[in-house]
Amino acid sequence: MSALPIGMFFGKARICNKKESKVIVKNLDEIINTDADVDTAQWRSRRLLLAQDGMGFSLHDTLIKKGEALHLWYKHHLEAVYCIEGEGEIEEKKNGKIHSIRPGTVYALNEHDQHILRANKGSQMRMVCVFNPPVTGREVHDKDGAYALPEQA
Ligand SMILES: CC(=O)NCC[C@H](N)C(=O)O
Fold first, then answer.
1. Which of 11, 17, 85, 93 could be 126's S-S partner, Cβ–Cβ 3.0 to 4.6 Å?
2. How far is the CA of 129 from the centre of ligand 1 (A)?
3. Which InterPro entries does UniProt cross-reference here (predicted)?
4. C-beta 81 within 6 A of ligand 1
5. What's the whole-model pTM score?
6. Cα dihedral 7/8/13/18 (nearest 10)
């Protein structure tokens, strides 16, 4: 008995007493064509992490379709957007400033900024988007370009 490593002897009891923890691992392949894949005329959002995942933010792999212009105003959310494919621009509505977007560009709407997001003609943009508070499921924009608050979604 004394020759057994202590971990082998007590190992089983230790595992039974502990709440099992599980890292969240998903692949985009498992999201496509499910409820977490929201496809509209102008964009398609593959929602990798949602409110139910308990992270405090949601994480989306989003396509902005060629030549589309989106008028957005996330009144209830903060959003950071990281472009990984395609080219376009973001226009700040409060001052008319236009910033070009290409792979590697990130923008963060830290003041719930009203803006226009445009994908260049002939260019689909692929963006990684993070929302706080997290999107809960199949939110689409209302007439102002906002998503509803989580409790109303
Ligand atoms: C960049 C952006 O806001 N695109 C609209 C779709 C949205 N981000 C989403 O993925 O839900």
1. 85
2. 7
3. Ectoine_synth, RmlC-like_jellyroll, RmlC_Cupin_sf
4. yes
5. 0.85
6. 50
Lowest mean pLDDT among 97-101, 125-129, 146-150: 146-150
Q: Is ligand 1 within 6 A of the CB of residue 130?
A: no
Nearest to 36 by CA among 69, 59, 57: 59
What is the interface pTM, i.e. ipTM, of the complex?
0.94
Phi then psi dihedrals of residue 96, to 5 deg? 75, 5
As beta bridge partners, residue 71 has: 116
CATH number for the segment(s) 27-137: 2.60.120.10
Write out pLDDT tens, residues 85-113: 999 999 999 999 999 999 999 999 999 99
CA distance linking residue 69 with residue 45, whole number of Å: 16
Name, in order, each residue with C-beta under 8 angstroms of 115's C-beta and a sequence gap of 6 or more. 71, 72, 73, 90, 91, 92, 93, 109
Cα 55 from Cα 145, distance rounded (Å): 24
Give the chain's length: 153
Cis peptide upstream of residue 133 (ω within 30 degrees of 0): yes
Task: Report the C-alpha gap between 58 and 101 in whole angstroms.
Answer: 22
